[in-house]
Amino acid sequence: MVLRVDKEKGYIDLSKRRVSPEDVAKCEERYNKSKLVHSIMRHVAETTGRDLEALYDNIAWPLYKLYGHAFDAFKTMVTDEGDAIFKKLEEEKGAAATALLSPEVREALLKNIKRRMTPQPLKIRADVEMTCFTYDGIEHIKSAIRAAEATSTEECPVKMKLVAPPLYVLTTQTLDKNKGVEVLTAACEACQKSIEASRGKLVVKEAARAVSERDDRLLNEKLEQLEAANAEVDGDDESDEEEDTGMGDIDVEAGPAFVEV
Question: Bias category Acidic residues: which stretches (predicted)?
Answer without folding.
Answer: 233-252
